[in-house]
Amino acid sequence: MAPRPFLLGSETEFGISCLDPREQNHITNSLRLVGFCPGRPAPECLWDYEGENPLVDLFDSVLDGEREDPDLYSNRALNKPLANGARLYVDGAHPEYSSPEVTDPLELVRYEAAGERIANSCRELSERAMGQPHFAVHKNNSDGKGNSYGYHENYLVEKQTPVRHLMSGMIPHFVTRILYCGAGKVGAEHGRAGCDFQISQRADFFETLAELNTMVRRPLFNTRNEPHVDPERWLRLHVIPGDSTMSQVSTWLKAGTTALILRLIEDDALGEMPVLADPVTAFREVSRDLNLNTPLPLQGGGAMTALEIQHTYLQKVREWSARNPLPGSFSDLIERWQRVLAALDSDPSSLEREVDWIIKRRMISAYLERKGLDWGHPRAKAMDLQYHDVNPAKGLYHTLRARGMVDELLDDAVIDAAIGAPPEDTRAWFRGQCLARFGKAVYGVSWSSVLLDTGQEIRRLPMADPFRGTRTIAEPLFEGVTSPAELVARLEGNA
């Protein structure tokens, strides 16, 4: 029997700074940046907000607030639906790239990297238009001035999965997975105790265990219930405590381990896991534990280190995977997970080509030693920020990459192909094809719908099932079709 498919995606909020100190309105700058988004076949396409409500949680409570519903002009300025099935838009005061839906964590690495290149293309085009460098764009989570911005993951979960099982199963993972997917950070923020360097960019900013909000009292477990799919069948777990990672290995492990553990919870196969006595405090402690040996108190007594908790997850996943076939890169990912944990046990520095926080710490430490500087020197924080610059000519991660000093999973040609082509095995293919084929006749899109202008009316094509609209299913529908009206007629004939 074929393995049950996974579905996942990510949302990257980019840090943006204007090089002209007189122009530091981040909202205006973000609008300018995304306004230079290249290669859009449907530049007038709207984002369809109908059916979206980020104010409802997994317990059916409703947060006070107004749902987003911008006017047509603002909608077009804020939103840039892309031919690869993704969405580039302005979220608050930041440009944000939401990847298309994918079924494999290695595909997520690919489309997330494509998003970095799209953001950099926006920067390049703005620079050409203005005749000089104007913006710097960073894939990170902190501006160093007390402000944090997000990196969010999304995972499809079967609706009948008890929320309490999701919380008990996932919270210890969110706290401890930063050992291999923390981006690294010089210093501390948000009023936390000072340190030279820590593992996670986000840990200082989390304050509570579970909450619907994502910006005030940030929670380890976000309870938003906005599925973008058939709500009777699925929910979308919205994961917010992760770091934006530059390393392809860190991104792959971050998404893949989380997806696997969620599948065990769905299958009621995870069993009892350690329950942290104070997960929020533990998150900050793990982030500062560069020796990886701090015992984390457990409810009911006893303690475990973050590494011991990760080994427990790995063992459960290995036992489950021995009984269940896995698609795509998941089997290879489990082997890499085991190897990385073993290296963290014996010699973390051996991961200086793979894990972001170790790569960054080695790079900055070597520079400070050469110059006779300490971690409090401003150059350390400047290098931290520059590590995440998406401009290959400026970003320090990209400098290491160009010198062959970091491991990569995908080559440039594979990533570049994802800039304009959607994944073929999810509904993102249908969305992307409509944009590419019909251009200005696409009135609007969302994750779960396409709105086509047939010349007589605007027709909404619902896509509540994320596993329909794939190339295999939908390509025959486009054969010989030259207009939205013909596609609608064919769809109605197949209904």
Strand-helix topology:
Elements: E1 8-13, E2 15-18, H1 26-35, E3 46-47, H2 72-78, E4 79-81, E5 87-91, E6 94-98, H3 105-130, E7 135-138, E8 151-158, H4 163-176, H5 178-181, E9 185-186, E10 197-198, E11 208-211, E12 219-222, E13 234-239, H6 248-266, H7 279-288, E14 296-297, E15 303-304, H8 306-321, H9 330-346, H10 356-371, H11 378-387, H12 396-402, H13 412-420, H14 428-438, E16 442-446, E17 449-453, E18 458-462, H15 471-478, H16 484-494
Parallel strand pairs: 3-16, 11-12
Antiparallel strand pairs: 1-6, 1-8, 2-7, 4-5, 5-6, 8-13, 9-10, 14-15, 16-17, 17-18
Helix pairs in contact: 1-3, 3-6, 3-13, 4-6, 4-7, 4-8, 6-9, 8-9, 10-11
Which terms would index this structure?
495 residues; alpha+beta; Creatine Kinase, Chain A, domain 2; 39% helix; six-stranded antiparallel sheet
Description:
With 495 residues, this protein is α+β, with helices and mostly antiparallel strands. The chain folds into 2 domains: 8-40 and 82-417, Creatine Kinase, Chain A, domain 2 (2-Layer Sandwich); 419-494, no CATH class. 39% of the residues lie in helices and 15% in strands. It has a 6-stranded antiparallel β-sheet with strand order 4-5-6-1-8-13. The protein has a 4-stranded mixed β-sheet with strand order 3-16-17-18. A hairpin with a 2-residue loop joins strand 16 and strand 17. The model has no long low-confidence stretch (mean pLDDT 95).
